[in-house]
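From the shared-data thread, chain only:
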Amino acid sequence: MNSSVLFLQSLAKDPRLVKSYLEEIKGLAKTLSRPVRIMEFCGGHTHSLLRYGLDEALRPEIEFLHGPGCPVCVLSLERLELALSIAKERGVIFTTYGDLLRVPSPKGESLQTLRAKGHRIKMVANAMEAFSLAKNNPQELIVFFAFGFETTAPATAFLLLKAKEERITNLKVISNHLLTPAVLDFLLSKEGLYMDGIIGPGHVSAVIGAKAYHEVVSKFKVPMVVAGFEPLDLLEAILLLLKMISKGEYGVDIAYRRAVSVEGNKKAQELMKEVFVLREDFPWRGLGRVPMSGLALREEFSLFDGELSWREPEVKDMPKGCLCGEILKGRAKPPDCKLFRRSCRPETPIGPCMVSSEGACLAYAKYKNL
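Structure, as tokens:
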């Protein structure tokens, strides 16, 4: 089903409200001197915008830039190679989330191809599945390759606290957890302010709260609105952004108050603080090493720290010809890549932006008739 049909379906849910939003947004945008450039940080927002045809409905007044909020897409090649090397070891049961399994190395190797060769690689839906696997198989070494933004970090923290409490000795965790405000600060510091506003991630913000963005928003004087994932959520966020942009204002607003507050989830924040420590820097695919952007295990959890047993290799960061890094910065769109829908397709992905369920390239391949 193409994006225009899905957009009409969303209109049918509340056509007057959606049409009212569209008219107000387009009318306000036309009062500005040029197209408004809005970056949606989260890959889930990218998929919603394209799936429901909102990007087409708001063109040409608004251009959407796709940001680095896809955790699989930004996992560096060094960390991918680390995962592959651990998964090959005898005596290891390697566990991780499903999206990572299909991401290929430049040589075409992936966790999925290793599993097909007989290596013990298990997809888990949540961190506690790795805990249960370790507890029920005390003679096996379970490695949990944890990744994601602040959304999944509390679950990893709970896993480690539970493992410590129950004195589990056959579990190792590799933390690849990332911090959203840090990468926004890095991106804007390095690339300059090339968007007029930012749609903030909903799930991440439910954990860290809207206040977590105040510093970066004030530093770069850019407006941000945290949004949910339904069409009306996104339209409300875009309208709030345009109102700030038209007045030359900046700040952080919330268009997802049923899930997000200013303060966030205090319990989840306490869990992360108890278990993790801030890294000096961490590698991001396409961005390089980003300062203060990753979480490592505290010394108290060294028994479970897989990074004390395995080190990431030194490798180049991107498959030849792949523009995923530029797409993650909002500097390119998937059709700009010469590999897109040619050698890089959903069934034969080359870059992670085509693999992940939140990847921009996959969104264009699914919802755009290019």
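The chain has 15 helices and 13 strands.
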